[in-house]
Amino acid sequence: MSRREFRRVAATVAASALLPAGLKGLNNAGPHGFSEILYAFTSTAANNGSAFAGLTGTTYYYNTMLGFNTLIGRFAMMVPMLALAGFLAEKKIAPESVGTFPVTTPLFVVLLVSVVVIVSALTFFPALSLGPLVEHLLMGAGKLF
Predict the structure, then answer these.
(1) What is the reported pLDDT for 3?
(2) Cα separation, 125 vs 104, whole angstroms
(3) Where are the domains of the chain?
(4) Cα dist. 54→22, 49, 51, 79, 145 in Å?
(5) Which tens digits make up the pLDDT trace of 73-123?
(6) What is the Cα–Cα distance from 127 to 133, expressed in whole angstroms?
(7) Which of 114, 116, 135, 143 is the most buried (most CB within 10 A)?
(8) Count of other CB atoms within 10 angstroms of residue 42
């Protein structure tokens, strides 16, 4: 999921967590309800469109929002990716020189994996801290929703 797509999903999740129409579809309150909304929007944008059992997707609000989310998440992201592929196909191959960074070494693999892990952690940590982590800490304190 790209950064732009994650921002769009985050905005729709925030709106759904605040609007009365979005709250009507929840069967669970608190952090678990937030996790249900987040999973539904993330799943429809990037995966198969599944949802937690507690989120009722049969409301007009969620049918409309999740439908648009699927449409934008799957099809609107194809256009920039195809444009990028076209630009990369037109690019001329540059000869190897002193300033070229080799991509066949273990150093490149370590750097690439490190960047992917760090960016993923920074992207998803706010959602994890608002949902499952808070729910676990509150459950340990004896509070259930």
Answers:
(1) 66
(2) 31
(3) 3-101
(4) 13, 15, 8, 34, 12
(5) 888 888 888 999 999 999 988 888 888 888 889 999 999 999 999 998 887
(6) 9
(7) 135
(8) 20
